[in-house]
Amino acid sequence: MQLSRRIRPRRVAALASVTALVLAVSTSAGSGHLRAPASAAGAGPITAARGSAFGPCMISGGHTVQMSEGVPTSTGYSRSTGTVHALTLMVDFPDAPGPGDALDRYREFFPQTAKWFRTASYGRLDYRPEAPIRHWLRMPKPFKAYGIERGAPFDPGYRDLVQDIVGAADPKVDFRDYDFLNVLITPNAGPSALDTVLSVTFAGNTEAPVADGVPVANASFVYSRQDDGSGSYDRTGYRVLPHENGHVFGLPDLYTQDGGGAVGHWDIMSEDWGANNDLLGWHKWKLGWLDASQVACAATPGTASYTLTPLERAGGPKLIFVPLGPRTGYAVEVRTRAGNDEAVCRPGVLIYRVDADVDTGMGPVTVYDSQRDSGGCTRSPNVQAELSDAPFGVGEVFKDTKRGVRIEVAGVGSGAGAGAGARAGAGADGEYRVVVERR
Fold it and tell me: Of the candidates 93, 119, 117, which has an alpha carbon nearest to the alpha carbon of residue 314?
């Protein structure tokens, strides 16, 4: 049975109310603090003005959307470029004592998580996990006494747990020195990940418990080992933490109650189990990992030709966005088997719709399948298969006749022939030429 059918979808515990999304956690490069002045920027340092050529592509969500795909990212989340300091604590309980050395739990996630972010960000995010307490941090109450459920932001159980974590860690930790908090719960606390997933992130929450005078506003909690049964846990099990930390940086969940059927394995915010995968180009722009020169805003009626280089390779043009209005549009990028995308079985041009007005876990992104009802091409276990062959190849066309949009993969880029990781028809470096027509 596919793991995605057995696991209850994980969700970010964002904010109890829209007004809670105001605390800025951004800091200057090289220094970590859980809180910064309320005027600080959000997660991604996107500076393009709405009145510029990028204005039509800077979609935004309505006031009722708690965690939007809009750009720039709202304030309240951790900075996603430069050096960030992640306070990492290993926590156990009297009724669930941590097995073995607490640093073994730490090593399940590091240095793999830091390496994943370094690769995904092209080196723009210097993720520094810090474990000042190198033993299990014992809580004063049994795990069951906290009544942990994945409910409202910092519900009473979580509030009590965070206060106990702060009390136990305070003699050795100054919470003002860190950008966000990772809590690695002993894996024998709570149910198996095959039954339910307790791992959760509280992001941008001004009503969070306070430590050393600052709200613990961005915190990721990781529980049982999410083993997909393929025998690859030692290599891929860490990826639940990059997913949860994605929320710390302001990214929403892309799966829905039906699982990963909207985006498949094309973004770690959709599926974080199974083989390694990257983030969508839209998310990389949102996080400040792509420059304005790497993004094309196709807002003008007419026909325009673009060359795209693989998302997994640093440098070069990476993303085309075709706005359909102030809240939505189509994104176009090239995905190949490289970097964090180790499982791509049909490289090509990925086309998807981004809806800034759709909330986390409700399907804010939809990938369009060039090979509908094919069953997909992946053989990786526990990966949503149908969308694995979604990318469009040379000569294939995406049409939205109602909106007057036509996107054609017209040919190769500047190279000739087929390079490593690229489908036949792509340029020597995996480049593709894409033509966008709009009425």
Answer: 119
Count Cβ atoms below 10 Å from residue 331 Cβ, excluding itself: 23
In 191-346, which ranges are E strands? 200-202, 210-211, 214-215, 219-222, 295-297, 302-308, 319-323, 328-335
What count of other Cβ atoms lies within 10 Å of the Cβ of residue 302?
A: 9
> What stretch of H or E contains 167?
helix 156-169
What gap in Å lies between CA 216 and CA 206, rounded to an integer?
8
* Token digits of residue 299: 């807002």
Nearest to 343, CA basis, from 392, 309, 307, 376: 376
Nearest CA among 355, 365, 378, 351 for reference residue 432: 351
What global pTM score does this model have?
Answer: 0.88
Helix pair 112-120, 240-248: axis angle to 10 deg: 60
Long-range contacts of 58-61 (CB under 8 A, 24+ apart): 59/323, 59/325, 59/326, 59/327, 59/328, 59/329, 59/354, 59/356, 60/326, 60/327, 60/356, 61/327, 61/356, 61/357, 61/358, 61/359
Residue 59 and residue 132: Cα distance in Å, rounded? 41
Q: First-to-last CA distance in the chain?
A: 46
Render pLDDT for 102-134 as a digit per residue (tens, 0 to 9). 999 999 999 999 999 999 999 999 999 999 999
Residues 412 and 394: their CA atoms lie apart, in Å, by 8
Identify the H or E element spanning 84.
strand 82-92
CA 330 to chain centre: 19
For the CA atoms of 5, 7, 13, 18, the dihedral, rounded to the nearest 10 degrees, stands at 10
Give the pair of three-digit tokens for residue 199: 């791992």
**What secondary structure letter does DSSP report for 362?**
S
pLDDT tens per residue, range 314-355: 999 999 999 999 999 999 999 999 999 988 999 999 999 999
DSSP string across 204-241:
S-TTS-EETTEE--SEEEE-S----SSS-HHHHGGGHH
Distance of CA 134 to the CA centre of its chain: 28
CA 65/CA 18 separation, integer angstroms: 7
- Cα dihedral sign, 84-271-343-370: negative
Contact 82, 119 (CB under 8 A): no
- Look up residue 253 and give its two tokens: 């969940």
* Strand, helix or coil for residue 337: coil
User: Measured between alpha carbons, how far is residue 406 from residues 44, 137, 211, 375 in Å?
Assistant: 30, 56, 53, 25
Report the amino acid identity of residue 375. Answer: G
